[in-house]
Task: inverse folding
């Protein structure tokens, strides 16, 4: 059986994920989409967005919160905009289908925008934004999520931390900014707790709305937006583009957590693709982006800094390293995946 001393290849992540999800009812195409997205996360060191998420996907399908056989449908359409009902498809499936529609519209008209409702969290938004960049387009991907953040001066969760990503093609790896709007995420808090490291002040409130540096209180309480009122304002407008525009019956503070397995999450996505070749020849556009990247690299590093990076650059370095060395899996995770595979007749070794 695979252990922490026997790293997985990205192809094994893709193959095992796809075979498991086909066994619980996904089409081969949809299962491959999820497998590729989980491998994308693992290659970048985003462990919580990688194969570690597979058992949760299976649990949600079995409980009914997510539908393995969901068929996404366009319910409103124009040459440059569409609204899609994902009918409780898993987030990766809905997200890829939404971005592909946006990309096709951008190729036809110069710009394509799509809002996708009635789905789950799409995990790392960089995956979808990069799809556009790899096809020569500028890409923007947003999803709303479980309410985590209060408004400035408030003490209740109103919106999620609204993960989003922007990507643009260059002469090499895409320029890729992938983030969320809270100062820290639940995953990061978990990692700090596991390492025995303190939670900094100014990142979270306890359930009563008081500042806290206690990991458990922060998880039970509220995450503060980065940039204060600016971060919250952007998060609120992201909710307009996702939950409001999608027509979801439930949005913002009414979105349910992924952990409520039998409940549809009611997450919405927004995808935007722009064809830069409409504005200028593509080679000229990428040369200008490369020049912008060069200006960042030319900035003299501050004391103690080895070199200056642009968004996404260190992630691509991690990808190349993990493609060579493999993706490490903790023993307890390997046991969980092996048990899931054995139950479904899909060997993990």
Result:
């Amino acid at each position: 059986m695979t252990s922490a001393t026997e790293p997985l290849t990205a192809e094994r992540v893709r193959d095992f994920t796809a075979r498991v999800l086909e066994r619980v009812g996904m089409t081969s195409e949809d299962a491959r989409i999820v497998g590729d997205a989980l491998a994308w996360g693992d290659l970048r060191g985003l462990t919580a967005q990688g194969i570690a998420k597979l058992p949760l996907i299976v649990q949600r399908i079995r409980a009914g919160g997510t539908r393995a056989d969901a068929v996404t449908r366009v319910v409103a359409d124009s040459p440059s905009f569409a609204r899609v009902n994902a009918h409780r498809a898993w987030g990766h499936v809905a997200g890829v289908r939404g971005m592909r529609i946006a990309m096709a519209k951008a190729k036809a008209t110069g710009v394509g925008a799509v809002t996708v409702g009635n789905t789950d969290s799409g995990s790392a938004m960089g995956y979808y934004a990069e799809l556009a960049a790899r096809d020569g387009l500028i890409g923007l991907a947003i999803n709303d999520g479980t309410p985590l953040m209060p408004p400035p001066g408030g003490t209740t969760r109103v919106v999620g931390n609204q993960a989003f990503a922007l990507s643009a093609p260059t002469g090499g790896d895409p320029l890729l900014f992938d983030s969320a709007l809270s100062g820290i995420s639940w995953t990061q808090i978990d990692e700090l707790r596991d390492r025995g490291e303190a939670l900094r002040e100014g990142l979270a409130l306890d359930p009563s709305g008081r500042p806290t540096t206690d990991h458990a209180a922060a998880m039970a309480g509220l995450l503060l937006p980065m940039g204060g009122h600016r971060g919250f304002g952007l998060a609120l407008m992201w909710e307009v583009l996702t939950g409001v525009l999608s027509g979801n019956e439930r949005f913002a503070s009414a979105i349910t957590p992924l952990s409520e397995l039998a409940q549809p999450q009611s997450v919405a996505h927004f995808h935007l693709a722009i064809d830069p070749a409409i504005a200028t020849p593509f080679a000229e556009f990428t040369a200008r982006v490369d020049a912008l990247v060069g200006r960042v690299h030319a900035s003299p590093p501050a004391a103690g800094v080895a070199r200056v990076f642009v968004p996404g650059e260190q992630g691509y370095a991690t990808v190349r390293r993990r493609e060579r060395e493999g993706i490490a899996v903790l023993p307890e995770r390997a046991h969980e995946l092996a048990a899931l595979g054995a139950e479904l007749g899909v060997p993990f070794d």
